Automatic annotation (TrEMBL):
Keyword flag Membrane: yes
The keyword Amino-acid biosynthesis is assigned to this record: no
Keywords carried by this UniProt record: Membrane, Transmembrane, Transmembrane helix
Source organism, top-level taxon: Bacteria
Protein name: DMT family transporter
InterPro entries: YdcZ (IPR006750)
Taxonomic lineage from the root: Bacteria, Pseudomonadati, Pseudomonadota, Betaproteobacteria, Burkholderiales
Pfam families: DMT_YdcZ
Annotated transmembrane regions: 45-69, 81-100, 106-127, 139-158
């Protein structure tokens, strides 16, 4: 049912949103599996290496199936320096996820990641960084980001309020 508060989106707009939500939904599984892999391998950085190698082994056959041409390394090398920070950011994220997810829990870690992503994205959009078209931060967009940050704080507060150890929780209740 479409009301003024829920306008209809054409399927062409809904599909990318659904794919983005699905992509976001797999991130906690990535964090959890990488954390377990880090424990199994004996060091978080080995899990980062393994995760990136698995990614490489998955993407190469896809590139082959798509008959993608060879990359133009020369054009990329002539581009701005920030073209290459994606790999650094990937290593930082994967390593942080596998180290912090066991300590914080999946929900706490991911809600912090999302808050950081949204704040940084607003800044990128506002200034048109990374080769993107500038989309100025207005009051509505800033309020939305503030709600996300507030949600992060609520999740963190709710986690701190709940006892982490069920044995300790039963001891407190008796």
């Amino acid at each position: 049912m479409n009301t003024p508060l829920t306008p209809a989106l054409p399927f062409a707009a809904e599909l990318p949103l659904a794919i983005a939500v699905l992509a976001g939904a797999v991130v906690p599984f990535q964090a959890g599996s990488n954390a377990a892999l880090g424990r199994a391998l004996g060091h978080p950085l080995w899990a980062t290496v393994a995760s990136l190698l698995v990614s490489l082994f998955v993407v190469l056959p896809v590139l082959s199936a798509m008959r993608a041409g060879a990359p133009d390394i020369g054009a990329a090398a002539r581009g701005p320096w920030w073209l290459w920070i994606g790999g650094i950011a990937g290593v930082a994220y994967i390593t942080a996820a596998l180290v912090l997810t066991p300590r914080l829990g999946a929900a706490n870690f991911i809600v912090c990641v999302v808050a950081g992503q949204v704040v940084a994205s607003l800044i990128i959009d506002h200034f048109g960084l990374m080769g993107l078209v500038a989309k100025p931060a207005n009051l509505t967009r800033v309020a939305g980001v503030m709600l996300i940050v507030a949600g992060m704080l609520v999740v963190q507060w709710g986690t701190r309020a709940a006892p982490a150890d069920p044995v300790a929780a039963s001891a407190v209740g008796s």
